[in-house]
Amino acid sequence: MEQETKDLPPTQPDSIDGDLRLAEEVLRKDRKATAEFVAHHADAVYAFIRRRVMPRPEAVEDLVQETFLAAWKGLANFRGEGGLRAWLLGIARHKVEDYYRQRLREALSPGDDDSSDESVVAPRYEEQLDRTRQREEIQRTLASLPEAYSTVLLWR
User: Fold this and answer.
1) Cα(40)–Cα(64) distance, rounded to whole angstroms?
2) Can you list the pairs that 133-138 forms with residues at least 24 positions away whose Cβ atoms lie under 8 Å?
3) Are 53 and 60 in contact (CB under 8 A)?
């Protein structure tokens, strides 16, 4: 067993020690280590995010980039307790949550579409009133559900 670990390259991402070494090398701005870091983990991060935001494929790549940027900024905080991949997927999970929170805020905030055309004001007012009633009904329904279910529905 010891012979197998000695044969591993120093930055093997499958071990905690290898993850710590790789993180240290990336922090030292080693380009090869940075490329290895991305190569070993980009597919997993991409797949993780893609499964969670698939109806919005344009958001997937942005979230992957945000995840890696946040990882590089916070890499000094990586303690190696769960491995780099698990740490990165945790960051990705937070980025996806932030994405859905932002989308939810945008959906729940009233529109800023002011129009000076009086012939359009009445229908727009009625549409906005209907949307407001719908939002209130949705909020009441979500409030009556257990938190786990309402969170899942909000994310969708």
Assistant:
1) 14
2) 135/108
3) yes
Distance, in Å, from the CA atom of 21 to the CA atom of 24, rounded to the nearest integer, reads 5
What tens digit of pLDDT does each residue of 129-150 get?
A: 777 778 778 778 877 877 777 7
Q: Considering just the CA atoms, what is the radius of gyration of the chain in Å? A: 23
The 10s digit of each residue's pLDDT in 97-126 is: 999 888 888 877 766 554 444 444 445 666
Domain ranges of the chain: 2-109, 111-156
Gap between the Cα atoms of 87 and 23, Å rounded: 12
| pTM for this model (two decimals) | 0.59
The amino acid occupying position 33 is: A
User: Of 21, 13, 25, whose CA–CA distance to 86 is shortest?
Assistant: 13
For residue 63, the tally of other CB atoms under 10 A from its CB is 22
Q: Which CATH class is domain 2-109?
A: mainly alpha
